[in-house]
Write a structure and sequence with these properties.
Elements (H helix, E strand, L loop, with lengths): L18 E8 L36 E7 L5 E7 L11 E9 L7 E11 L2 E11 L4 E2 L9 E9 L2 E8 L4 E8 L7 E7 L12 E9 L2 E2 L5 E5 L2 E2 L2 E2 L1 E3 L7 E5 L3
Antiparallel strand pairs: 1-10, 2-11, 2-14, 3-8, 3-12, 4-5, 4-11, 5-6, 6-7, 8-9, 9-10, 12-13, 12-18, 15-16, 17-18
Length: 254
């Protein structure tokens, strides 16, 4: 795919990509190998879900939410409810809620979530997993507005386990991967997708709950950093206070 189809420029793709080893699916389909994964529909953009570098992602203005630093992070888990998109005013847009480790000042990201997108005025939700700088892997399980999502990312040595479940639909997927990564942050994020900060279909807010990193509520697991999606100097998201592992991120403006 051309660079223009990605959420961000990927000039820093380099050696050190993590390798997908196996996928375990609890649900209607059977286990699948890396080669047989289905990505987002061919008519829909395929995004990568991180822009790491030697600076905080906040400087790039594409992340909203909270990131813990100041510790070595080996696990994070949490839940959120899929918001309802209003595609009437912005027929084409993409943002993505996810949880993960790394990326806030580090050059790798281990993350899992879904895209919430409007395409031609039609809302869609597309789950994915990513071990940046490897590509996102989209999978085909159904996600609808109002569904309850739970997710977790953890590592032991160089072995990673990334799980996403839709308890409303009754499916769960676990990805087992390997990677030598930096473990410098843990975060719950809503990320703007595509080139630049384009208009976004109103989604009200996303509320993350039960966020636990290294066995502690996210607000107690390290140094808490709040970040907003911004266009220039204009904030487009606003975080509620992070308290006992829960917060809401609200969309302010397109």
């Amino acid at each position: 795919m051309a660079i223009s189809g990605y959420r961000v420029g990927l000039a820093c793709l380099a050696a050190g990509s993590s390798v997908l080893l196996a996928v375990t699916l609890a649900g209607p389909a059977s286990a699948a190998s890396h080669a047989s994964h289905t990505k987002a529909p061919a008519t829909f953009p395929h995004y990568n879900h991180a822009r790491p570098g030697n600076h905080k992602v906040h400087d790039d203005q594409i992340w909203g939410g909270y990131a813990d630093t100041g510790n070595q992070f080996t696990s994070i888990s949490g839940s959120w409810t899929v918001p309802t998109l209003d595609c009437s005013s912005v027929p084409d847009s993409s943002v993505s809620p996810w949880i993960g480790i790394d990326g806030y000042g580090t050059s790798t990201v281990e993350q899992i979530g879904f895209d919430q997108d409007c395409q031609g005025g039609v809302a869609g939700y597309y789950p994915w997993v990513e071990m940046y700088p490897a590509d996102s892997i989209y999978f085909t399980e159904t996600v609808n507005a109002g569904d309850q999502i739970t997710a977790s990312v953890s590592v032991s040595g160089s072995s990673w386990t990334l799980t996403e479940s839709d308890t409303t639909q009754g499916w769960s997927k676990t990805f087992n991967e390997t990677g030598d990564d930096q473990l410098g942050s843990a975060e719950a994020i809503v990320e703007d997708l595509g080139n630049g900060i384009g208009p976004v279909a109103p989604f009200g807010s996303v509320t993350f709950t039960n966020l636990v990193a290294n066995g502690q509520p996210l607000d107690q697991a390290g140094t808490v950093n709040s970040t907003d999606i911004e266009r220039g100097n204009t904030p487009l998201t606003q975080n509620s206070p992070l308290s006992n592992g829960s917060f809401s991120i609200s969309w302010l403006s397109s």
